[in-house]
Amino acid sequence: MKTFFTNIQKMSRMGRRSRCGRSTSGFTIVETLVAISIVLLGVTTVFTSAQVGISSTSGVRNRVTAMFLAQEGLEAVKNLKDSNLHAIIENPSADWLEGMTVRDNKEGPCPTSAASCGFDAGEVVGSQAFFSCEDGDCTIYTDINNDLLRQSGVQVGGPSSGFIREIFIEETVPDKQVRVRVLVSRPGSNFSPFEVTTYMYNWF
Known about the structure:
The protein contains 3 helices and 7 strands. The chain is of the alpha+beta class. The protein has a 5-stranded antiparallel sheet with strand order 4-3-5-6-7, with helices on one face. A two-stranded antiparallel ribbon has the order 1-2. The longest helix is centred in the N-terminal third of the chain and has 62 residues. The chain is elongated and about 95 Å long. The relative contact order is 0.12.
């Protein structure tokens, strides 16, 4: 009888060892699926973070580009104004807004405060560099010769940068003060238009 119980205990221990061996010999299907899900979740998180980072970098680059394009437009108008004021020293009858707006039967690229004009930095410095957006295209293009951004699709022959720059010149105080507003936009994207405004004065 004692021998019988001894054999039963031996068989029980062998069964436990056998079951333990089977349970640790490999992964079950459920364990494998859980592991794969965790790996996929980690990879998806990494790629999502990378995509957000790339999108943020592109947005910052567009914002900085728009800022420089707007500043360039303001400086162009200021430069033309300073040239006109210098001409008044030579000729007191000269117009300080020459080449900018239509006033006193004089022609200019920006006919009214509601109409916009463009400026091509690659053109001759002066009023020749300004043109009406009603007659031309205010899109910023990439110059195929030097990769610079210019507002003249006819001359540069390059692709569109996606940006549009519009310069508005409004005479707020007759013959004394004008408001200059430069608007840079990027139609067809989630880019918010960038705008800068300044005032210029006739000191004579």
